[in-house]
């Protein structure tokens, strides 16, 4: 059974950084595209970044230049490094892959 588990969320101030992790278990890591998404109450879930099977990355416009997605095959983990965070980045962040969603991790950017 495929399982994705996010961690690393929290409360930070504007301008600060945060790194999210997504541990993948139950399947060989790296065979498929993985993605980061986020959702705020009342809004649809939106794509943040994709990590393609071959290692290429695709970012949403709001993430370009501030967020970096990466992976560690030894740890079966995908990361989302988020820099210069803004209040509008506040959301629950989810990882997705292998037709599976994680449970999400809350990121709050506020003074």
Q: What does it look like?
A:
The chain starts with a strand and ends with a strand. It contains no helices and eleven strands. The model has no long low-confidence stretch (mean pLDDT 96). With 111 residues, the chain is mainly β. A hairpin with a 4-residue loop joins β7 and β8. The protein is globular and about 40 Å long. Helices cover 0% and strands 51% of the residues. The strands form two sheets. Strands 2, 4, 5, 6, 9, 10 and 11 form a seven-stranded mixed β-sheet that branches. The protein has a four-stranded antiparallel β-sheet with strand order 1-3-8-7, with no helix packed on it.
Write the layout of secondary structure elements.
Layout (H helix, E strand, L loop, with lengths): L2 E5 L2 E3 L5 E8 L8 E6 L6 E6 L5 E3 L7 E6 L4 E6 L8 E7 L2 E2 L3 E5 L2
Parallel strand pairs: 2-11
Antiparallel strand pairs: 1-3, 3-8, 4-5, 4-9, 5-6, 7-8, 9-10, 9-11
Number of helices: 0
Element-by-element helix/strand order: EEEEEEEEEEE
The count of strands amounts to 11
- Give the distance, in angstroms, between the N- and C-terminal Cα atoms: 40 Å
Characterize the biggest β-sheet: 7 strands, mixed
What is the percentage of strand-forming residues?
over 45%
Radius of gyration: 13 Å
Helix content: under 10%
